[in-house]
Amino acid sequence: MKKSQKILLIIGIVIIIVVPSVAIGVYFYIQSQLKQTTVSIENIELLDISKDGFTARVDFTINAASSQEVSFRIINIGVFYNADLMGNGTASQVEFSTKETIHQTDFTLTVLDQSLYDSLLEDFIMSDLVTLDIAVDIEFLGALSNLPSQSVTTEAILSGLNGLPFSIESLNISDIKDDELSVEIEANVNNTGTIEATFAALQVDINFKDQKVGKITEKNVTFVQGLNQFIFIASLNATNNQLIEDFIENETLDLVLDGAIQLKESDSEEDYIPIFTRNFELAGLDGLDPSIISMDLMNTMQNTLIMAVNTSLDNPSNLDFTLSELNIDISYQGEWIGDAAGSNLTLIKGQNTFILTATLSGNETLLSELLTQYLAGDNITLSFNVSTILMGSEGYEMTINQLLPDIEIPGITEDLVGVSVDMITLDLGDLPSSVTYTIGTTITIYNPMNFAINVTAFEGRLEYDDLDGASYSIPFVDSWSYPAKNDIFLTDLDFDWSTTPLELASYGNASDYYQFSDSDIEQGIRLYDEYVDKNQLYVDVVQGIVTIQIGSFEISITVEIYDIFVT
């Protein structure tokens, strides 16, 4: 054999020996690297939850020591709660490779231990956070199929529903019958978690004075993330309790609402999880809080007074009612004198005012006294008993009686009498023997009412005050001086219209004139000092009495008018 051939033969033998050895070494090196491949779970997110199970999303990574692609398959997902196996998860995607950095799959829980899952649900509903343990079992494929399967366990902290905070926006009466109240409740349930949650039912019990009077049940209820708005309709049992009576008589009706979640359909109350208790004050009618705003004399008929009674009723509820009857009994000085009545009135929500006609025809002496106070502008103390009949549905009637505290009704505020005075003559030229003065007085009677009246008389005294005294002198003849003096009598005023009464139309007036003269020296000098020298003569009408005929009533009204400037 030639030398060159030997060399080639040796090289070939070396290649045959070395190359496979290198390949085998590389293979075992890669295998050792692949065997160091691990799986780690990065995140678990709850997607939805119901009474039957939940769906979650798991993110995990492959930590491969080799750049060679690794494939694997999820063979099981175990879900543990309180260290006990609660169920297994079925993954939506089971096979993965290292081509992707982050791997993700959703899985649905198949519950194996229902009581443990129910315990989880209760904690999830009532708590801020719930902790689970998730174990993911995987097996490698391809080149690593001979490796044993791996189990990766991680702790998952889930945001709970925190009791599903419940708030009542409004609770209103929608109907009243003889044995029940119907209510409409607007409420919000706040899902503070991160997922949508579905349950078999939401139940709200309505309690009144420790008695369950109503129940609301929403089947297959779903709470989306954030605020969930509900409108509930409930009938409250009003038998064997004071529900309707308290609603009518009181300012508020105290109700207690107990809410619970039902995890699975069942007739057992034990399957409900209490989530809230709320106290609520429902606006009652408070007896309609009647008040008398004013009373005005409208007319008279013989021995009867006709008065307009302006009354107010407050309806704080959300319902409109029909008042089949509204009756007001009126008493004066402890004795009934008449009433005012209305029927088929509409009582809307909020404040209502009604003007009723009152017929006062009781004790004539008392009525005459009342009328005198009224025309004199004095306050009249009256007692009122207000009775109302409200109509509910199906012919149901509710009667409310309210005896009001004594009320002072003001009399008229307009003046009945006006007086003007003018100095006609004032002459001191005959001093020291005498003086001469003449004063004219005009009396005007006003009718402040919207019906005609007759005036039969007016009498009184005309007086004035000389606050600084008066003096007068005639050089080389005489002088006079008088000290300050009050209530100086001038004249009596006496108007008698009994034969021909002054007939005053509605809101009308009529006048009469009286003139008198005198020659008293002291009076003349005082008048001259006040009227001429100082231009400050004011007179008063005192002890005045005006006599008015209204129907069969003859009323005498005391009148006093001060500081009438004499022109």
What does this structure look like?
- The chain is mainly beta and 567 residues long.
- Helix content is 14%, strand content 60%.
- It is built from 5 helices and 33 strands.
- Strands 1, 2, 3, 4, 5, 6, 7, 8, 11, 12, 14 and 15 form a 12-stranded mixed β-sheet that branches. Strands 16, 17, 18, 19, 20, 21, 22 and 23 form an 8-stranded antiparallel β-sheet that branches. Strands 26, 29, 30, 32 and 33 form a 5-stranded antiparallel β-sheet that branches.
- The protein has 4 domains: 38-159, Sandwich (Immunoglobulin-like); 166-284, Immunoglobulins (Immunoglobulin-like, Sandwich), CATH 2.60.40; 288-409, Sandwich (Immunoglobulin-like); 417-565, Immunoglobulin-like (Sandwich).
Keywords:
567 residues; mainly beta; Immunoglobulin-like; twelve-stranded mixed β-sheet; eight-stranded antiparallel β-sheet; 5 helices; elongated
SSE blueprint and pairings:
Layout: H1 3-34, E1 38-49, E2 54-63, E3 71-81, E4 84-91, E5 95-97, E6 102-111, H2 114-126, E7 129-141, E8 150-159, E9 166-176, E10 180-191, E11 196-208, E12 211-223, E13 226-237, H3 243-249, E14 252-262, E15 272-283, E16 291-301, E17 304-315, E18 321-332, E19 335-347, E20 350-360, H4 364-376, E21 380-391, E22 397-403, E23 407-409, E24 417-427, E25 436-446, E26 453-466, E27 470-474, E28 478-482, E29 485-496, E30 502-504, E31 509-518, H5 521-533, E32 538-550, E33 553-565
Parallel strand pairs: 1-11
Antiparallel strand pairs: 1-2, 2-6, 3-4, 3-5, 3-7, 4-6, 7-8, 9-10, 10-13, 11-12, 11-14, 14-15, 16-17, 17-20, 18-19, 18-21, 19-20, 21-22, 21-23, 24-25, 25-31, 26-29, 26-30, 26-32, 27-28, 32-33
